[in-house]
Write a structure and sequence with these properties.
5 strands; 7 helices; about 190 residues
């Protein structure tokens, strides 16, 4: 037979915890385990990212995650309940700032504290490395994530614009002669 926790989890996933307060109350009592990611988790994590509509790219492939795992094994976390991965969070440390990537919680299990526990654990790990600031990127149209992060103490950084470029990508730039650039700046000629 199935354990009570298996039945509760199956019911919560089937019916959606937000719609059923009884499942929500029972699910809060299930033991949740925050642990390091292993490559055996990749398939479940990939499915979770897709269920959460995360924008995925080349750095999220199995090979790229394996490389990340070799570099920072302590900064890839999953939250599991009864062997089911219900949350994931990737962290990064650049030597001065901590970064959060691909934070996802099973949509039908949001509101149970899974995302908050993952964030708490990651912040502790980043602090041990020396991070005094944690930053993250969130899509402008992902209002639920923005609300979650604001409730977690994050603030929008209006002073910075995020820009990106594929490594090795060549861009044809219009070159302007130095004299033309000087003329545009209205720098007086010292003759």
């Amino acid at each position: 037979g199935k354990s009570m926790s298996q039945l509760v989890l199956e019911g919560a996933v089937k019916e959606g915890v937000h719609k059923c307060q009884q499942w929500l109350a029972l699910a809060r009592r299930l033991p949740m385990n925050i642990r390091g990611f292993t490559m055996a988790d990749y398939k479940q994590v990939w499915q979770l990212w897709h269920a959460c509509h995360l924008i995925l790219g080349p750095s999220d492939t199995e090979a790229a995650i394996e490389k990340k795992l070799e570099r920072d094994p302590d900064l890839l976390l999953v939250a599991e309940v009864n062997n089911a991965i219900l949350g994931v969070l990737i962290g990064a440390w650049d030597g001065r700032t901590g970064w959060i990537y691909n934070h996802a919680v099973e949509p039908r299990c949001r509101g149970l504290g899974i995302g908050s526990e993952l964030m708490r654990e990651m912040e502790q790990r980043l602090a041990k490395k020396g991070a005094s600031t944690v930053r993250l990127l969130v899509s402008r149209d992902n209002l639920d994530a923005q609300d979650f992060y604001q409730a977690s103490g994050f603030q929008e950084d209006n002073d910075q614009l995020v820009m990106s470029k594929a490594v090795g990508q060549r861009i044809a730039r219009k070159r302007v002669a130095v004299t033309e650039a000087v003329r545009r700046l209205h720098v007086p000629d010292n003759r």
